[in-house]
């Protein structure tokens, strides 16, 4: 079977699908991963065919305010919609659509008859259990949570309106609004698998059937891959260090964040590794090392703690390694995952990005490393996650749906 996975966004929005795609490929499927051009090496390193989507994450801009996020999201989606059909429609037998690409992929399914399944990294369906993850708000009670969840979907549909109208014209389909297409998918019980662990989010009991939590899809890395020698040397030179990194967040804040990190590590008496990321973190010193991208699965188990932005992938990777965290959420779904880690006891209370100081970070790091309760909570979650098989469950679901 020829399977096409379509995913768009930052590295954290794409990398998990390289692991999922590699597992599907090992099961005998011909797998193509369509993503923005930046991630071509990531996809090809996993042994998958790459297809370029017509946009890049640079169109998002760097703002974190809600209005700014809406504007940059609309620009991103509009550009994504241009040429989406030409990039994705090429003889696939099955489409696996991320939360970002599904509102476009549904129309392609209608036009071509190619079946599709949702493969989401975040819970997007309204529920009384928690408010919509993209808002970063606190729970308002079951009725209000569901109401704000529905409102968040309506706002997302508005973002997709221009792209959907253009795509349907390209496909010679009659006009249909994004909200009407979403309702059609819900009535048809369109299947969605969610690639996160029930250690962090249990399946809400008020979700419709067809919405399932599969477990994480882990980014691919070669079985023979090892950490660079300079990292191994640093790890061997003293006590376990702390990693500080913000992934694709905080562009332009590198100097400020690097200074805060170094001062906090010094106050807490800890060695540290700064992961450059989009912020460009960097520092020099006997007890500090600056690195680029390395697989979380190789590095995280060797650490005392991880300071990160609360992204879904990084949050899961730290738990998988049984390592406690200090979270500094920046925007979007990051406060949600940061709060989940704290509720598990595997992280301190989140430090809002704009409130981050060396003093606050040092205090949180000191408690995280010295108080064993955080490590024990992370270890319990790691044991739970080890019992899950997100890729295997996805493969079984594909077999059930396509054989049926």
Compose a concise summary of this entry.
The chain is of the alpha/beta class and 404 residues long.
What would you say this structure looks like, in words?
This protein is α/β, with parallel strands linked by helices and 404 residues long. The chain is built from 15 helices and 12 strands. The strands form 2 sheets. Strands 3-2-1-4-5-6-7 form a 7-stranded parallel sheet, sandwiched between helices. Helix 3 packs parallel to helix 6. The longest helix is centred in the middle third of the chain and has 29 residues. About 2% of the residues have low confidence.
Quick tags:
7-stranded parallel beta sheet; 5-stranded parallel beta sheet
For the secondary structure, the number of strands is 12
Instruction: Tell me the major beta sheet.
Output: 7 strands, parallel
Provide the low-confidence segments as ranges: 58-64
User: What percentage of residues falls in helices of 4 or more residues?
Assistant: 40-55%
Structural class: alpha/beta
Order of helices and strands: EHEHEHHEHEHHEEHEHEEHEHEHHHH
Number of helical stretches of at least 4 residues? 15
Query: For this entry, what is the oligomeric state of its chains?
Result: single chain
The first-to-last residue Cα distance is: 15 Å
Radius of gyration, Cα only, in angstroms?
A: 21 Å
- Strand content range: 5-15%
Q: Biggest sheet, strands in spatial order?
A: 3-2-1-4-5-6-7
Overall pLDDT metric: 93
- Shape verdict: globular
Walk me through the topology:
Layout: E1 2-6, H1 11-26, E2 30-35, H2 40-45, E3 49-52, H3 66-81, H4 84-88, E4 94-97, H5 102-112, E5 116-120, H6 142-170, H7 178-187, E6 192-194, E7 211-213, H8 229-236, E8 242-245, H9 254-268, E9 272-275, E10 288-291, H10 296-299, E11 305-308, H11 312-320, E12 325-327, H12 334-344, H13 358-370, H14 372-386, H15 390-403
Parallel strand pairs: 1-2, 1-4, 2-3, 4-5, 5-6, 6-7, 8-9, 8-11, 9-10, 11-12
């Amino acid at each position: 079977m020829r399977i096409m996975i379509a995913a768009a966004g930052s590295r954290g929005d794409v990398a998990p699908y390289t692991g999922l795609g590699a597992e599907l490929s090992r099961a005998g499927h011909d797998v193509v991963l369509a993503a923005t051009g930046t991630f071509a090496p990531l996809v090809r390193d996993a042994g998958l065919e790459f297809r370029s989507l017509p946009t890049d994450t640079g169109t998002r801009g760097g703002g974190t305010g809600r209005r700014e996020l809406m504007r940059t999201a609309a620009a991103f989606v509009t550009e994504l919609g241009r040429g989406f059909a030409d990039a994705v429609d090429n003889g696939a037998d099955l489409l696996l659509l991320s939360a970002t690409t599904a509102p476009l992929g549904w129309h392609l399914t209608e036009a071509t008859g190619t079946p599709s399944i949702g493969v989401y990294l975040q819970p997007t369906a309204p529920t009384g259990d928690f408010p919509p993850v993209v808002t970063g708000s606190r729970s308002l009670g079951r009725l209000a949570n569901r109401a704000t969840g529905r409102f968040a979907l309506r706002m997302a549909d508005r973002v997709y309106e221009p792209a959907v109208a253009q795509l349907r014209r390209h496909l010679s389909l009659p006009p249909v609004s994004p909200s009407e297409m979403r309702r059609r998918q819900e009535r048809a019980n369109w299947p969605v698998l969610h690639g996160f662990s029930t250690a962090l989010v249990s399946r809400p009991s008020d979700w419709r059937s067809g919405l399932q939590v599969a477990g994480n899809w882990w980014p691919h890395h070669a079985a023979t891959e090892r950490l660079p020698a300079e990292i191994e040397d640093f790890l061997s030179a003293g006590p376990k260090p702390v990693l500080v990194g913000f992934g694709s967040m905080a562009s332009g804040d590198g100097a400020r964040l690097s200074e805060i990190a170094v001062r906090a590590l010094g106050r807490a008496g800890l060695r540290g590794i700064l992961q450059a990321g989009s912020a460009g973190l960097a520092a020099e010193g006997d007890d500090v090392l600056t690195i680029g991208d390395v697989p979380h699965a190789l590095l995280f188990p060797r650490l005392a703690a991880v300071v990160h932005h609360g992204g879904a992938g990084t949050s899961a990777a730290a738990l998988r390694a049984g390592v406690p965290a200090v979270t500094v959420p920046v925007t979007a779904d990051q406060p949600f995952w940061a709060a989940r880690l704290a509720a598990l006891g595997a992280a301190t209370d989140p430090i809002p990005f704009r409130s981050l100081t060396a003093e606050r970070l040092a205090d949180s790091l000191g408690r995280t490393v010295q108080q064993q309760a955080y490590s024990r909570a992370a270890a319990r979650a790691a044991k739970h996650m080890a019992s899950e098989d997100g890729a295997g469950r996805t493969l079984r679901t594909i077999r059930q749906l396509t054989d049926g």
